């Protein structure tokens, strides 16, 4: 499906996979150093290029680069450390009418054979020209014409970035996306109708190394990871590809040796997927559990393999209910809570939280209002 894109990328509407419509709010401080002028990012890219090994050599083995941490519990050094300087996130460096031409580095299927549908991890080379922060999104403009506007390009589709600002190669030159291929099946015949498949998700999942890709952004502030308190608690709730921003958070917290930042708090991830084969980045998350048992918790809800306490399918809200007392106490003590995934996840979660609050003799509406006021409540659904 095609939808309209606002030039400032404040609200881009889309409907499938990790493509979505969002309006985000601010909670990062301003500073005299800013990403929001291209000369800054260009000069950074210039300094990076002096040490660049060309594409083919630099990205000759994606799997090895992405799995550096698997071999050792020591953290990985990152560069360029200038990416830590601004306290103002980069925003809309490239807009739909002035998009950036990046290159595909790799496309890898990241779900098992029994997963319903296909999800791919896609690494994109921006050569340092499109910096971003964890929790932000890129816009992608698929090639071809907009069927509703002949002669015009397709509208922008937003995708949460699934890597830290340093990328999967820790050099500040790539970004990664987690994309589920959107396939349409005719409800009467049960057969796939390629004419109604998701244009952008299929373009991305079918891409080959070296292919060009038009990128806009970065955009978004509501999912930025607050780092003013290194001992904070972050409760992350995701369904499917909604885990993308959390992969970025967790790599920053546990995998990367980030200058002047040492995380000593708690990161607690709840991930809801259909079955074991649908789990995304499970090796990485399991590694954090092993290496940082005091700082990381990971709870999975496998709807087609597990039952909730009422005998129904186990959804992410059932896991939240299971730990509701602990979650409410953490929120009362200032924890941040994040939600990312299909918008259909929110009604069930809200109903669960409201029921738990009432059981505790609290007003959920008043509590939610306070969480929003305190900037503890972060929602990005599509």
TrEMBL record:
Q: What class of enzyme is it?
A: oxidoreductase
Q: Which InterPro entries match?
A: FAD-bd_FR_type, Flavoprot_Pyr_Nucl_cyt_Rdtase, FNR, FNR_nucleotide-bd, FNR_plant_Cyanobacteria, OxRdtase_FAD/NAD-bd, Riboflavin_synthase-like_b-brl
Which EC number(s) does the record attach to this protein?
1.18.1.2
List the Pfam families hit by this protein, alphabetically.
NAD_binding_1
> PROSITE patterns, alphabetically?
FAD_FR
Task: Name any one GO molecular function.
Answer: poly(U) RNA binding
What cofactors does this protein use?
FAD
Q: Which Gene3D superfamilies match?
A: Nucleotide-binding domain of ferredoxin-NADP reductase (FNR) module (3.40.50.80), Translation factors (2.40.30.10)
Annotated ranges, domain FAD-binding FR-type: 97-225
For this record, an example GO cellular component is: chloroplast
* Regions annotated as coiled coil: none
Q: Where in the cell is it found?
A: Plastid, Chloroplast
Q: Which catalytic reaction applies to this protein?
A: 2 reduced [2Fe-2S]-[ferredoxin] + NADP(+) + H(+) = 2 oxidized [2Fe-2S]-[ferredoxin] + NADPH
Protein's GO biological process: photosynthesis
Q: Which UniProt keywords apply?
A: Chloroplast, Electron transport, FAD, Flavoprotein, NADP, Oxidoreductase, Photosynthesis, Plastid, Transit peptide, Transport
**SUPFAM superfamilies in the record:** Ferredoxin reductase-like, C-terminal NADP-linked domain, Riboflavin synthase domain-like
Recorded superkingdom: Eukaryota
Q: Binding positions for NADP(+)?
A: 160, 180, 241, 303-304, 313, 341-342, 380
Family per similarity comment:
Belongs to the ferredoxin--NADP reductase type 1 family.
Can you say what this protein is called?
Ferredoxin--NADP reductase, chloroplastic
Taxonomic source organism: Brassica campestris (Field mustard)
Q: What is the lineage of its organism?
A: Eukaryota, Viridiplantae, Streptophyta, Embryophyta, Tracheophyta
């Amino acid at each position: 499906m095609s939808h309209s894109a606002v030039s400032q990328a404040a609200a881009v509407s889309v409907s499938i996979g990790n493509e979505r419509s969002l309006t985000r709010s601010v909670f990062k401080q301003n500073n005299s150093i800013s990403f929001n002028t291209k000369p800054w990012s260009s000069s950074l890219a210039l300094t990076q290029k002096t040490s660049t090994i060309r594409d083919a050599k630099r990205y000759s083995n994606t799997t090895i680069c992405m799995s550096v941490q698997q071999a050792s519990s020591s953290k990985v050094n990152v560069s360029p450390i200038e990416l830590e300087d601004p306290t103002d996130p980069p925003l809309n460096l490239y807009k739909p009418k002035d998009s950036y031409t990046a290159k595909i580095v790799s496309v890898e299927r990241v779900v098992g054979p029994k997963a319903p549908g296909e999800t791919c991890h896609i690494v994109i080379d921006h050569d340092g020209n499109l910096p971003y922060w964890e929790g932000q999104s890129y816009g992608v403009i698929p090639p071809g014409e907009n069927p509703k506007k002949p002669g015009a390009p397709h509208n922008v589709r937003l995708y949460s970035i699934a890597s830290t600002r340093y990328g999967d190669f820790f050099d500040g030159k790539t970004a990664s996306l987690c994309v589920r291929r959107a396939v349409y099946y005719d409800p009467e015949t049960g057969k796939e109708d390629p004419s109604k498949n998701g244009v952008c998700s299929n373009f991305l999942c079918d891409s080959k190394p070296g292919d060009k890709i038009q990128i806009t952004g970065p955009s978004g502030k509501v999912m930025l990871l607050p780092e003013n308190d290194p001992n904070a608690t972050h409760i992350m709730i995701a369904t499917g590809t909604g885990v993308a921003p959390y992969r970025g958070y967790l790599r920053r917290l546990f995998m990367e040796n980030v200058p002047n930042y040492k995380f000593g708090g708690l990161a607690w991830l709840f991930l809801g997927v259909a079955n074991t084969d649908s789990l995304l980045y499970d090796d990485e998350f399991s590694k954090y559990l092993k290496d940082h048992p005091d700082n990381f918790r990971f709870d999975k809800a496998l709807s087609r393999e597990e039952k909730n306490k009422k005998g129904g399918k186990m959804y992410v809200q059932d896991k939240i209910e299971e730990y509701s007392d602990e979650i409410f106490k953490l929120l009362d003590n200032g924890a941040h809570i994040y939600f990312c995934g299909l918008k259909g996840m929110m009604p069930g979660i809200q109903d669960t939280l409201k029921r738990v609050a009432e059981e505790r003799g609290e007003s959920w509406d008043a509590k939610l209002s306070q969480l929003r006021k305190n900037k503890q409540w972060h929602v990005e659904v599509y």
